[in-house]
Amino acid sequence: MFDNLKQNIPIIQVFISYLLYITLLVYSTFPIAILWLILNIYMWLILSTSFNTYNINSFVYILCAAGIAVSVSLFFIQGVEELAFPEGALMFNIDNIMKASLLFFLSTIPLILLCFDKKQTAGGEKTNKDRQKENEELWEEATPEDLRSGDYEVL
Q1: How many domains are contained in the chain?
Q2: Burial category of 45 from C-beta neighbours within 10 Å (exposed 0-12, middle 13-18, buried 19 and up)
Q3: Percentage of residues in the chain with pLDDT exceeding 70?
Q4: Residue 14: which domain range?
Q5: Residue 154: inside a domain, yes or no?
């Protein structure tokens, strides 16, 4: 039971940190929320290495999720502004929308590369070990009679 909890503590910490990130966005300022997110990424690193649950794929997912969360927050906080008149009108700030779009794009590149790499290794490409096994199956060992006759191919 404790081992199962030990495996899940870093994941629970990430979910709690994202909830507190949203809370800080609502009740505090944008830079403080980003600093909180960065601090929690480091806390996840410390927890996962201390519990021996660190995985590079999980780290990439957490970094990408943080980048996506910051880009969506940047879009809604600074990219879209509500105007006083006419009532309910919105003004789009193209500079901040571009910043948010660039951050979103840069945050999704590692995810795309990881997914593409997993599909490629799981799909058509074979590893070197699989190729060696296939090559070994195609060839048979030379018998002493073949060695005396000289009728064999050397690998």
Answers
A1: 1
A2: middle
A3: 83
A4: 2-149
A5: no
Instruction: Name the residue with tokens 């009532």.
Output: 87
* Contacts of 146 by beta carbon, 8 Å cutoff, 6+ apart: 152
Q: Contact at 8 Å (CB) between 48 and 54? A: yes
140 pLDDT more than 90: no
Burial class (CB in 10 A: 0-12, 13-18, 19+), 90: exposed
Q: Residue 91: helix, strand or coil by DSSP?
A: strand
Helices 30-50 & 2-27 angle (0-180, nearest 10): 170
Residue 63 has pLDDT above 60, yes or no: yes
DSSP H helical ranges for 51-93: 56-74
Distance separating the N- and C-terminal Cα atoms of the chain: 53
The pair phi, psi for residue 110, each rounded to 5°, is -60, -35
What torsion do the CA atoms of 112, 61, 108, 122 make, to the nearest 10 degrees? 0
Asked whether residue 155 is assigned to any structural domain, the reply reads: no
